[in-house]
Design a protein that fits this description.
Strands 1, 2, 3, 4, 5 and 6 form a six-stranded antiparallel sheet that branches. By secondary structure, the protein is α+β, with helices and mostly antiparallel strands. Strand 2 and strand 3 form a beta hairpin. It is elongated, with a radius of gyration of 31 Å. 35% of the residues lie in helices and 42% in strands. It is built from three helices and six strands.
Length: 190
Amino acid sequence: MALNFSSMRCRAAGWLVGYAGLCGLLGGCASAPKAFPSQEEFNSTVTYSRLFDATAAQTCEAARRALLSQGYIINTAQADLVEGRKSFQPEPESHVQMEIRVVCAPDNPDGSVSLGFVTALQDVYALKKSNNSASLGVPALGSVSLPFSSSNDALVKVASRTISSDIFYDRFFDLVKRYIVIDAHVSSDN
């Protein structure tokens, strides 16, 4: 009986070793989610905002005109918010869409100075093709899959990023200032 008990212990130990090996193998297949370092540093206040010698409404109107002058379609135009969108096609199977959002806020008690906050988001789309096939059920043969020459083309978003170029925002703010000066000059003539 002792021999039989020892044999059972060896089999149980073999099962445990096999089970532990299987768990280790399956655990190796599961991958931990990829960790990305923090993308935000909160170190620059001049990239995305500027002070303007104009009211918030005048600043947003100048931003609207600046976007229109560059071919943007205005989605939203309010006294304190302007959003515009423009599409580009740099390659035959790529599409880029730029969205610019401007928020205008008073910066002093009488509202004669405003702060303009601007963010530009760029989305990149790629053309993805998928071929279609048809299945035909034939009782004697079973199911037969036949390819045919139809394909669906779809734009799929492959990237999205906030523009962080100081030069990009400097140029935009210079254009906004130009329209504020023009607006102030026209107002003083009346």
